[in-house]
């Protein structure tokens, strides 16, 4: 197994070269989760360096959460697991980049229509009004990270009707234009149906974590979004303090 560095190392340390080479293979998806990293003695021979140098690089990769070191078994690429705060509206790009992985966004579908009965229930609309329905995918490296299904109330955000959402995800676009005053999160576990399985490249029936969010600006409903994640790659975190009565 050859490992040719892709980052210039002239004047740099062998430790940094090993670190860069392995990181790039993980972040590019060339080494998928579960892939075994060459043993220390193999890397030492390939880079013509001491095992101490190799150990230093692998320890740093493990600390960053990119690999898992198992005693007597070796080192393996970890499946990225993100932690999202339950009570925050966060940017998925930041969540992915915090894992040390390259982020990519893809708009799958865009439809302008009058709200259906389901749309009106989700957005708490009283009558049929124009909405924009979006389906998107977010990637971490080469792997699908999250599937997004969103409905936007065009009456609350008229400029959304002119935005194609090819270059920017709807979440950060909305945050930059509409000051939200209230949000609601709903979290549940589901089994992947065919749509989700294909979107996330997982088996049908695999466990998934669904985070649904509604936001309002003043008293006007702005959007409802449903994010679906493979359960093994995502965790939700909430920090709170005792109530003072």
What report would you give on this structure?
Mean pLDDT is 85; it is low at 1-12. The protein starts with 13 loop residues before the first helix and ends in an 8-residue tail after the last strand. Helix 1 crosses helix 3 (51-63) and helix 2 crosses helix 3. It has helices at residues 14-27, 40-47, 51-63, 92-97, 117-123, 170-177, 194-200, and strands spanning 36-37, 67-70, 74-77, 82-85, 103-114, 130-140, 143-153, 182-191, 207-217, 220-230, 234-237. It has 2 domains: 14-77, Winged helix-like DNA-binding domain superfamily/Winged helix DNA-binding domain (Arc Repressor Mutant, subunit A, Orthogonal Bundle), CATH 1.10.10; 82-237, Chorismate lyase-like (Chorismate lyase). A hairpin with a 2-residue loop joins strand 9 and strand 10 (220-230). With 245 residues, the protein is of the alpha+beta class. It has 7 helices and 11 strands. The strands form 3 sheets. A 6-stranded antiparallel beta sheet has the order 5-6-7-10-9-8.
Q: Give the ordered list of helices and strands.
A: HEHHEEEHEHEEHEHEEE
Oligomer: single chain
Structural class computed from helices and strand pairing: alpha+beta
Please summarize the sheet with the most strands: 6 strands, antiparallel
**CATH fold-type name of the largest domain:** Chorismate lyase
- What proportion of the residues form beta strands (DSSP E)? 25-35%
Number of strands: 11
Secondary structure: helix percent: 25-40%
The average pLDDT score comes to 85
């Amino acid at each position: 197994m050859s490992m040719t560095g892709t980052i210039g190392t002239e004047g740099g340390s062998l430790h940094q070269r090993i670190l860069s080479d392995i990181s790039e293979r993980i972040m590019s998806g060339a080494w998928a989760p579960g892939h075994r990293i060459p043993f220390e003695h193999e890397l030492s021979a390939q880079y013509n360096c001491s095992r101490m140098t190799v150990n230093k690089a692998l320890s740093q990769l493990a600390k960053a959460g990119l690999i898992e070191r198992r005693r007597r078994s070796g080192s393996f690429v970890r499946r990225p697991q993100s932690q999202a705060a339950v009570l925050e509206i966060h940017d998925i790009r930041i969540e992915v980049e915090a894992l040390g992985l390259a982020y990519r966004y893809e708009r799958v579908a865009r439809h302008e229509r009058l709200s259906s009965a389901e749309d009106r229930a989700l957005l708490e609309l009283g009558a049929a009004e124009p909405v924009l329905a979006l389906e998107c995918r977010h990637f971490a490296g080469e792997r699908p990270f999250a599937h997004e299904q969103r409905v936007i109330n065009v009456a609350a955000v008229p400029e959304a009707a002119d935005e194609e959402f090819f270059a920017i995800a709807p979440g950060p676009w909305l945050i930059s234009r509409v000051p939200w005053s209230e949000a609601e999160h709903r979290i549940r576990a589901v089994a992947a149906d065919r749509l989700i399985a294909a979107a996330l490249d997982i088996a049908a029936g695999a466990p998934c974590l669904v985070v649904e969010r509604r936001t309002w600006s003043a008293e006007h409903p702005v959007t409802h979004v449903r994010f679906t994640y493979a359960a093994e790659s995502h965790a939700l975190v909430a920090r709170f303090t005792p109530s003072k009565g």
